[in-house]
Amino acid sequence: MRFTSKLTFRILLATVFLFLAACASEITFFVSRPPLLPVENIDNISIGEFENLTDEEISLPEGLNSARLKSRNVLQPNILKFKTNKNVAEFVKSMVISGLSTSGQYRLVDIGQTIATGGESTPDATKTAIVKARVKYYEFNAEGSEKVFYLLLATRGGLGFKDQAILLTSREVVIRSAERSQKGFRVETPYLEKVAALEVEFDLVRQSSGEKLVETQRFRAYYNQKWGGDENTSHLPQPLQQVIITKYNQNESLAEIFETGVAELQQALLDPDEFLARGGKLGINPSVVSNSLEIQRALAREVVDQYLKQISQYTEETTLEIASGDAIAVNYLKGNAYELAINRLENIQRSEEDTFNLALAYESIADHRQAAKYYREALNQNPGNKIYQNALKRVDKR
Amino acid sequence: MSHEIVDVKCRLSIWRFALFIILMSIFVSGCAPKIRLKVVRPAEVSTTGIQKVAIGNFEVVSINRVFKVERDGQWQIKKIGLTPEQEKALSNQIRARVVNLLSTTPYFQLVYTDEFKQLENDAALQKLIAAGGYRTSEINAVINGRIWLDVTRINSSEIDKVDLEYVQGGRENSFNYTVQSLVYWPYKSISGSLALEMKMTRLNPNEIISVTFDTRQASYKLGGKPAGFGDQIASGMQAAGQALASGLQDRNASSGIEESNLVLPNFDQIVADLSESIAAQFARRVSVTQVEVSYAIATGGNKSATLLIEAGAYEKAIEVLNETLARADEKNPDDIYNLGLCYEAIGEFGVALVTYNDAIALDSNNLIYAQGIGRIERMKREKRRIADQLTRKN
């Protein structure tokens, strides 16, 4: 009962903070970002071959060397290499196609089909790019049991709140350190562990000449989780497990769980049909062991999203600072009417702040060339301004 | 009996929580004079010129069906393979869900023919279409699909400590000790994932109109150790969302069969739920849909038009606002903005943009007019179809 009221209080507090933040006067920009790589003069994209590479190794995360991977608490078999053992190229391909068809920047064409029909709809081969990929996937499933130490204590109850809290905390410390140094009852405990790794190399070539439009892009994603058993042991050496869990695993924090929950509730309230169509009716129990397809989907999503940002325009919600220039243009920017703001700022006598705001508007519609030009112009007028310098860095990466 | 009481208590707390969220949302909406509008969203996938559609084969790319059982630390893993007939039946089951949901959309008519269904895979279908070798003449497009499925069931147990509290007397400083005990918590779980690619191919001229790829997952568990704090929040919110959405949904799709969370769904039921959810999403992608949004309304204009907009009578509001604006010597920009809002609500984004521009020309410092333009500019940048519509109209 006490627990429930504490929970409600925490949720109440978090909700109030969340909503107060929503009322603050920060300006949210829906910025269209250009592709991170310079893909120029391409209107159409066609999907080429997605090849499964068998019996090849997937590189370990950056900075790790399998020869040096040693750890005490390793379960057998000890995994030091990720050697391809499953074909997932078709799955990755479907995800790329659907991502490209919703991004809206390119027309997705099927060269074979259009050539078959011939005529006007044949896309210009010089403006058509072909995506090709080489896919490696590794999956490991362990089902076993191990001896785990459990120390059981008896403690005094019925104390005041403060004393009870101190007692319970110290009990946890004592138990943890004792169990770590293998004291307590040894009990056979079942566990499940899953390891997966995906590596994809993408190539984007011009259809007419076969030349590479951008360098070969390689992306990797890894997964590791264990359910049950001793939380300090794994089939992976500890350094490798640490890197995968901290850098690649998708465990949500409490705040994120709450934020997602609120967003879903809002959708259920505003648009129940959409909520149900997006799978709202399906139960998700977070403590259930993930299945193979679920892990495959998560890794493919990570890799494909990273790649699509390299070659295709995307939208990002961000907060940016507007300079206090022409009031009308500032109002347009606050309303996210960037083209209207550009139209106004191009045609008035501009101050240094106006030039900065003009650059901001260009940045928001993904025209980084113009944005850099005007950020530079603003910076020439006020060379020491840190905000201008940072803004220029943002758009002038290439 | 005790289960029922717990269930009722649980539902009550879910509803209390949902009510709290609603109240907070109302409180927040006080930040700006916003109203909820039902606005038209064009189909993500353009089906212009397509009236009659046939559904082709749903090819199974991979199926993984596993049953893992653990007793005393020993695991038995059973991979349940499917015979070609069972695979075909599964593909038909998923296909039937799609057919069922698409047949309810008014945007095109389904033609029931087996000609395309008999083709083994996508390559065979594309070859037939390209060569023009099909017999069914009256259809405009074919939808075919590819399926990936994984359903894993686990029977095992978790080991966790519980605190057993011994109390004698119950008064302050009375005899009160907590003893830890190790408990085996047996559980059964099922998790299912389905990925479905659906391709719509126009027959004449031969082109691929769209390829969508959606994935869904569901997982259920009976028993097991008590959930942690984060899991409790996640499942509480999920249950509240489901209760809200089912309660608010116009057409209640309830089949009348009572579902119990004390029984784990079986393989067929999981597959049915997953495929129905993906099919519903696809049906929304190819249809013009109505979504509820919260936009600012201008309050300084014609009051009856404002009331009409709030009630969702956009066409009537357009009529009233056009009359008001035609009569007025000096046009009220709030009326012009609200007119734009009506056009946006009925999906006339080109006219809405022009109207918002007229309003902002009269009052350039008004933020909600700028937000109207900002919304359409954003849609134009993100949705190719709307950009095309705006280019045609302007």
What brief labels describe this structure?
heterodimer; A: 398 residues; alpha/beta; Serine Threonine Protein Phosphatase 5, Tetratricopeptide repeat; five-stranded mixed beta sheet; two-stranded antiparallel ribbon; 13 helices; 10 strands; 22% strand; disordered N terminus; B: 394 residues; 2 domains; six-stranded mixed beta sheet; two-stranded antiparallel sheet; 8 strands; 30% strand; flat
- Main interface pair? A-B, 101 and 128 residues
Mean pLDDT of chain A: 83
Mean pLDDT of chain B: 81
Radius of gyration of chain A: 27 Å
Give the number of helices of chain A: 13
Counting copies of identical and different chains, the oligomeric state is heterodimer
Give the helices and strands of chain A as they follow along the chain.
Answer: HEEEEHEHEEHEEHHHHEHHHHH
What's the alpha carbon Rg of chain B, rounded to whole Å?
A: 28 Å
Uncertain runs of chain B are: 1-6, 26-32
What do you see in this structure?
The complex is a heterodimer of chains A (398) and B (394). Among the domains of chain A are: 32-136 and 196-257 and 285-314, no CATH class; 321-395, Tetratricopeptide repeat domain (Serine Threonine Protein Phosphatase 5, Tetratricopeptide repeat, Alpha Horseshoe), CATH 1.25.40. Helix content of chain A is 44%, strand content 22%. Chain A has helices at residues 2-23, 89-103, 111-117, 161-180, 238-248, 254-270, 272-280, 292-311, 327-334, 338-346, 352-364, 368-381, 386-395; strands spanning 28-33, 44-52, 57-58, 82-83, 107-108, 128-150, 154-156, 185-206, 217-228, 314-319. In chain A, the strands form 3 sheets. Chain A has a 5-stranded mixed β-sheet with strand order 5-2-6-8-9. A two-stranded antiparallel ribbon of chain A has the order 1-10. With 394 residues, chain B is α/β, with parallel strands linked by helices. Chain B is flat. Helix content of chain B is 43%, strand content 30%. In chain B, helix 6 runs antiparallel to helix 7 (314-327), helix 8 runs antiparallel to helix 9 and helix 10 (367-382) packs across helix 11 (384-393). Chain B folds into 2 domains: 44-244 and 257-287; 290-393, Tetratricopeptide repeat domain (Serine Threonine Protein Phosphatase 5, Tetratricopeptide repeat). Classes of the chains: A alpha/beta (398), B alpha/beta (394). The interface between A and B is large, with 101 and 128 residues. Strand 7 of chain A pairs antiparallel with strand 6 of chain B.
